[in-house]
Design goal:
Blueprint lengths: L67 H27 L2 H10 L1 H9 L8 H23 L6 H14 L2 H7 L5
Length: about 180
């Protein structure tokens, strides 16, 4: 079977003929193909454990410093707990002990989560999940207080929403799931 359309011959320039010179580009302006790329160390006798194909490629590194989202959640919890304790003490002195105790009792989930925030630097994934659950319960308690007309429940509500959002970020998950020594 013969080719009905043979390639054009260039007898005046043998270097332009791709059959004579494979590096010649028959179509000007297009890049040339020089064959498959070769590994520069191919055939040089690689040592054991060097080069690709041996073992596993290193994965993403675990964070070594607490991410900003976790630090922000920690600070928000501490500030809310401090405001809750100060507000309860003021209510005990100004109104009556029952009102101050009620303000402290309604925010108990927030206070427990603030205590757990001291362990954010060393604790594992369970403390993150526990703080998310506690602040979610605090959100429900804050919604109840706000619906009842208590303006003091708005700040813990908004702070708890912020903590849930901050601890639900991927960087927070990577921080709490990091390997520990």
């Amino acid at each position: 079977m013969s080719n009905a359309f043979p390639p054009p011959q260039h007898p005046q320039d043998p270097q332009a003929n791709p059959q004579v010179n494979p590096q010649a580009n028959p179509q000007a302006g297009l890049p040339t193909y020089n064959g498959p790329a070769q590994d520069p160390g191919y055939g040089q006798g690689q040592q054991y454990g060097q080069g690709y194909g041996y073992g596993y490629a290193p994965g993403p590194m675990a964070p070594t410093q607490m991410p900003g989202t976790v630090r922000a959640a920690q600070i928000v919890l501490w500030v809310l707990a401090g405001l809750t304790v100060i507000g309860s003490v003021i209510l005990i002195g100004a109104v009556n002990p029952e009102t101050g105790g009620a303000a402290l009792g309604v925010n108990i989930c927030l206070l427990v989560a603030a205590g757990m925030a001291f362990r954010f630097g060393s604790a594992g994934h369970g403390i993150r999940v526990t703080c998310i659950v506690l602040t979610s319960v605090q959100i429900l308690l804050g919604l109840g207080g706000t619906a009842a007309g208590n303006p003091g429940g708005l700040l813990p509500l908004l702070g708890s929403i912020a903590v849930v959002i901050l601890l639900s970020q991927g960087t927070a998950g990577a921080w709490f799931k990091r390997p520990r020594a």
